[in-house]
């Protein structure tokens, strides 16, 4: 590579050593080189789903029972360990975690689980923060909602203090950038939150708008959102889910959502009327946790849209038609950036009913 390095400890400099492998840090092309370097890792793990995001790697395994899941994961981790050694890469075992997803009745006890990578046993946890989204074993997202609330309230109070010295447009812009963006980050993942979590986030939004707009405590929620030109969170989440489905149908997404949403036209058992409307197949799910997923709710929301909205020729036109014709309350809202790509990566993990995730 034509690069070398030295180490300085207590003022003493080592001799110069040449670098024969690795990726130069601090360079513009460094991240791209690293992605290309580790791109072959999923190919050596055929029995699991592998998600690569920058230097974070997640291995997800799903089986019918706990022991089969553990055995499969240990086998995959052994393959990953060999691949790392062959490519002269090291793994930080102290940051590697194992986590189960499932119902309360099926979740195992930690002391019964032994997962190792090389000679190091990996710690089993009930909560894990992945790409700024706090996951829990039952996918309730309670810890994530509480973290949003904890970090947003100080910002709301600060905005309330400075709102008297700036214009309404400026304070609303700051609110969208500093608070609403955090609330809506990856919201297509937890769109199906249990009622308590959804109500908590909406109360946080109401508190924020009352604070920055200096409205009385009993101001109706609808009036608050009208004054701020912001719709309620449930409607904004539905919009984001529909955009995600639209991208999946038209193969504009970078993840497996391209194959996730299927039109009813291929199912002869459905009605001709539904086929003419080009409705999407809503999967049959028995578990409540699965009915809260994007895979289930996405087709439901999308099928509610009129044909002219669904047939929009581009994503931008689809967004415009979505706000004008489907949910008019969204038309006046300033669109904010939400992280659809990160949401897509996280969504793939959400649907694993009984899995172990190990972050490499």
Outline type:
globular
- Helix/strand structural class: alpha+beta
Helix content: 40-55%
Given as residue ranges, the uncertain stretches (5+ residues, pLDDT < 50) are 267-275, 329-360
Output the helix-strand order: EEEEHEEHEEEEEEHHHHHHHHHHHE
The span between the termini is 26 Å
Strand order of the largest sheet: 5-6-13-7-10
Task: Write a structural description.
44% of the residues lie in helices and 13% in strands. The chain has a five-stranded mixed sheet with strand order 5-6-13-7-10, covered by helices on one side. Strand 11 and strand 12 form a beta hairpin. The radius of gyration is 24 Å and the shape is globular. The C terminus is likely disordered.
Summarize the topology:
Layout lengths: L2 E3 L2 E2 L2 E2 L3 E3 L10 H9 L10 E5 L2 E7 L3 H21 L10 E5 L14 E2 L2 E2 L1 E3 L1 E4 L2 E4 L5 H21 L5 H16 L11 H19 L7 H8 L4 H17 L22 H5 L11 H4 L2 H10 L3 H4 L4 H12 L13 H11 L4 E5 L1
Parallel strand pairs: 7-10
Antiparallel strand pairs: 1-4, 2-3, 5-6, 6-13, 7-13, 8-9, 11-12
């Amino acid at each position: 590579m034509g690069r070398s390095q030295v180490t300085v400890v207590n003022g003493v400099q080592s001799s110069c050593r040449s670098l024969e492998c690795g990726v130069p840090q601090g360079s513009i092309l460094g991240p791209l080189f690293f992605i290309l370097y580790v791109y072959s890792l999923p190919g050596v793990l055929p029995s699991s789903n592998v998600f690569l995001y920058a230097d974070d790697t997640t291995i997800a395994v799903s089986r019918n029972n706990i022991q089969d899941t553990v055995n499969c994961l240990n086998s995959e981790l052994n393959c990953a360990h060999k691949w790392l050694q062959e490519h002269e890469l090291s793994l930080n075992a102290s940051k590697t975690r194992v986590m189960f997803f499932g119902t309360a009745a099926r979740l195992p006890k930690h002391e019964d689980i032994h997962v190792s990578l090389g000679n190091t046993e990996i710690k089993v946890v009930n909560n894990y923060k992945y790409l700024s989204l706090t996951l829990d074993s039952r996918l309730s997202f309670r810890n994530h909602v509480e973290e949003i609330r904890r970090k947003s309230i100080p910002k709301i109070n600060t905005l309330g203090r400075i709102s008297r010295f700036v214009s309404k447009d400026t304070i609303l812009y700051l609110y969208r950038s500093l608070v609403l963006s955090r609330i809506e980050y990856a919201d297509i993942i937890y769109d199906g939150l249990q009622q308590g979590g959804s109500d908590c986030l909406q109360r946080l939004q109401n508190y924020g708008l009352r604070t920055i707009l200096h409205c009385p405590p009993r101001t109706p929620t609808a009036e608050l959102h009208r004054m701020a030109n912001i719709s309620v969170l449930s409607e904004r989440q539905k919009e984001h889910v529909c955009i995600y489905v639209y991208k999946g149908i038209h193969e504009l997404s970078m993840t497996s959502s391209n194959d996730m949403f299927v039109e009813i036209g291929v199912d002869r058992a459905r009605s001709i009327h539904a086929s003419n409307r080009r409705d999407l197949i809503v999967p049959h799910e028995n578990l409540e946790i699965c009915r809260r997923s994007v895979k289930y709710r996405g087709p439901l929301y999308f099928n509610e849209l009129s044909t002219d909205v669904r047939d929009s020729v581009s994503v931008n036109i689809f967004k415009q038609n979505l706000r004008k014709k489907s949910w008019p309350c969204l038309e006046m809202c300033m669109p904010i950036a939400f992280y659809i790509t990160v949401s897509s990566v996280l969504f793939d993990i959400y649907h694993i009913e009984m899995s172990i995730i190990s972050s490499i």
